[in-house]
Design a protein that fits this description.
The structure holds two protein chains of two kinds. Helices cover about 70% and strands about 0% of the residues of chain A. Chain A is mostly helical.
């Protein structure tokens, strides 16, 4: 049973339950009203309606899972940071579960704070930037399958491969964020945010090309643009092993893409106060904060699906659990680098991108071509 | 992008205090810079004139939060120079041990701030943690953790606590081990080297012409350390070599401070082991004679000078303080122009700004 089938069955059951009462209600009413009731009931129980509702439910489930994971990620980040830094990390809020509730408390604090738009800000851009940032990240999230049967699909076929070019779509949405950062930086009408936004654009030039080249090598080996086919192709061997160079390049690019420590130039708090988020406050800032961790989760999920064999693992755990474990490991690796490396400079990240990562990515692509021509994949 | 002025300060994460650095940037490149100080002027030089000589000591502690002990030590040296007081040798040894501990604590605080500026939070936490050891030692000596009020005119306030020698030697060997760890953490990091090497070059001639003193001057290749060149206290009797580095960039300034911490460990060890028995304080006269006194010390940040004028009463007529950072910060445009905006934190962080003593 895949996720669609589950949601379809659930919605179907719910619709039947409601319709039971609905039709009886219609029986009591005069005929012209009763006919209307019957028509609505028939529409509700039609295949099209239930399928659409099922897809919405699927998206909701994926988002809820992602948000819970984001809470976990923030908690893990703080705990891990605390252990590295000789302190406990969050502890008192929900101390029976290791301070896990601290994130909810912080979120609640941000939620009740006033949302201020600077007087001279470009109001439309200032409002749109978080919308684009959060929206594009969630769209990228929706394309990533968590298991062989656990993905946003449109049919109940257990062998379905979902959206055909889902990996391409994921990267397309994933790469939108720098534009929203640029919009946020420009529309805040502040010199620090402007420089932060410009840095984000400059940074994108450096990591996007090597990242997509390494992804191209995976597409080449799998022979498909879809996550399902890519993960299925890793059944025997993870792509991270023959394409180890690509895995390293990809994780470095990922750190730049999700803008964490060695590459968090757009929000370099030492010289740019808080970079492009300087003027944001309240829940808008909270959304940026949450989404940056969400992007960490997406990044880990992408690395898992493309290089670390996705949900393949010993059978004693269900697919999504294996997938999440791998995504967490990738995230912790990135966090490790985050807390133990200084920040690079804006010209240095271009150097790293063009002089180190790009040759590595091309070399990795050549390895992939070699493996493909040798017929090993 | 057009050129624009950016005010980095008075409230800015880079400033470590209350001052303003105006930089003119062309995109990311700095084309002009103007440091502005004076936001933290407390009138200490005037405040001093209404207090007796002993009451001044706690005020001079407030000159710099990072190294308060060197300033009260400097004041006591100056007052002793004015009054002609002879300090007992034990007091001199205690003072040297204390100010070298203060120097390590100050440099560690600098290293912590520097690491945090560069985005290396791990360095911030570890150095602040190890600073505690020296703060604890100073607390055992003086009773306070930040503003010690420990030296007196004619000696020090208390004798050292029991087992001080053992604790100080232990702290030194611990610190030397930790310094190697820091070198692994900082020098071993490629990114740290990228951010520091060939950044903020200050030529030897510029450094000397602008009156830069202390670690930034020594990092430009000038071997000038008051502890060696104009020895005060018991420094001539101790065996040490001031750290220098020829390059004059941010990495050189970092390296000089790291080497100075090794030197300070060495000095503490010698001072503690050679410490003679005897009195630790003599009674100083209440009234100073008509005349002037001058004191110069090697502060962790550079050369600190005090000039004290006595008029025969029990209060100073005038106290002039020469702050090292007030002079050093004037070299900031020389170091900043031509580098990137992100280098501001590395360059200005490398100077170890302390606004308390700059604005006085």
């Amino acid at each position: 049973m895949n996720l669609f089938e589950f949601c379809y069955g659930l919605i179907h059951w719910l619709v039947d339950l409601v319709n039971n009462i609905w039709y009886r209600l219609g029986d009591w009413l005069p005929w012209w009203f009763g006919d209307f009731f019957t028509a609505v009931g028939d529409f509700a129980s039609s295949h099209g309606h239930i399928a659409v509702m099922a897809i919405l439910l699927e998206v909701l489930i994926i988002i809820i899972i992602a948000l819970i994971n984001v809470l976990n990620f923030i908690w893990l980040d703080r705990k891990y940071m605390g252990r590295m830094f000789d302190f406990y990390g969050p502890y008192y809020v929900g101390y029976r579960i290791g301070g896990w509730l601290q994130n909810l408390a912080d979120g609640m604090k941000l939620f009740v704070k006033e949302i201020i738009t600077p007087a001279k800000a470009d109001r439309i851009g200032f409002f749109l930037a978080p919308v684009i940032f959060v929206g594009s990240s969630f769209l990228a999230l929706a394309t990533i399958p968590l298991g062989r049967q656990f993905y946003v699909g449109t049919n109940a076929d257990p062998l379905s491969t979902g959206v055909e070019a889902s990996a391409l779509i994921a990267f397309a949405f994933f790469a939108i964020a720098p534009f929203s950062i640029l919009i946020a930086g420009w529309s805040s009408n502040n010199k620090y945010t402007l420089i932060g936004g410009m840095r984000s654009a400059a940074q994108m030039m450096s990591y996007e090309i090597p990242m997509l080249l390494t992804v191209a090598s995976v597409f080449l080996l799998a022979g498909s643009f879809g996550f399902m086919d890519i993960v299925d192709a890793q059944h025997d061997i993870w792509f991270g092993i023959p394409l180890f160079l690509g895995l390293v390049t990809f994780i470095v690019c990922l750190a730049a893409e999700v803008e964490i420590q060695p590459f968090d130039l757009p929000e370099a708090e030492a010289e740019l106060v808080e970079g492009w988020t300087t003027e944001y406050c309240g829940m808008r800032f909270g959304l940026f904060m949450m989404t940056s961790y969400l992007r960490g989760y997406i990044g880990g999920a992408l690395a898992t699906a493309l290089f670390l064999g996705g949900w393949h693992g010993p059978g004693f755990l269900p697919d999504p659990i294996w997938f999440l474990i791998k995504a967490y490991i990738v995230f912790v690796l990135i966090e490790w680098a985050r807390w133990s490396l200084p920040r690079v400079r804006v010209d240095q990240i271009l150097n790293i991108g063009w002089k180190r990562l790009l040759p590595m990515a091309i070399l990795n692509l050549m390895v992939a071509v070699l493996l493909k021509t040798a017929g090993w994949f | 992008m057009a050129e624009m002025w950016i005010n980095m300060g008075p409230q800015h994460p880079m400033t470590h205090g209350l001052w303003n650095l105006r930089v003119k940037v062309d995109g990311e490149t700095i084309v002009d810079a103007q440091p502005e100080v004076g936001y933290l002027h407390r009138g200490i030089e005037k405040l001093v004139e209404g207090r007796t000589y002993t009451q001044v000591i706690p005020i001079t502690d407030r000159l710099c939060y990072g190294s308060s002990l060197t300033w009260s030590h400097l004041y006591c040296l100056t007052a002793e120079n004015l009054m002609g007081v002879e300090v007992p040798p034990r007091a001199e040894y205690i003072r040297v041990a204390a100010i070298e501990m203060q120097r390590i604590a100050s440099h560690l605080m600098w290293l912590a701030a520097y690491a945090a500026d560069l985005g290396l939070m791990l360095g911030f936490i570890y150095t602040m943690r190890d600073r505690e050891i020296f703060i604890d030692l100073l607390q055992a000596m003086s009773g306070s953790r930040l503003t010690y009020n420990y030296p007196r005119i004619g000696g020090v306030a208390h004798d050292v606590p029991p087992n001080f020698e053992r604790d100080a030697l232990r702290a030194c060997s611990y610190m030397e081990k930790k310094l190697k760890e820091y070198e692994d953490l900082f020098d071993g990091s490629k990114v740290f080297m990228m951010r520091n090497v060939d950044v903020g070059l200050l030529k030897k001639e510029d450094a000397m012409n602008l009156g830069v003193t202390g670690p930034p001057l020594r990092a430009s290749g000038v071997k000038y350390d008051l502890r060696k060149d104009m020895p005060y206290s018991i420094y001539p009797e101790l065996n040490f070599e001031p750290a220098t580095h020829p390059d004059g960039d941010c990495y050189a300034r970092y390296k000089v401070r790291m080497d100075e911490m090794y030197t300070s460990c060495k000095l503490i060890r010698q001072a503690v082991q050679k410490m003679p028995k005897g009195k630790w304080r003599v009674v100083a006269p209440r009234n100073a004679p008509v005349g002037t006194g001058l004191g110069r010390v090697e502060d962790p940040r550079g050369e600190g000078v005090m000039y004290l004028v006595g008029d025969g009463s029990d209060r100073p007529y005038r106290l002039k303080i020469r702050s090292p950072i007030f002079v050093t910060v004037s070299a900031a445009p020389k170091m900043l122009i031509g580098y990137k905006l992100a280098d501001v934190v590395a360059i200005m962080g490398g100077l170890d700004m302390c606004i308390g003593e700059t604005d006085r």
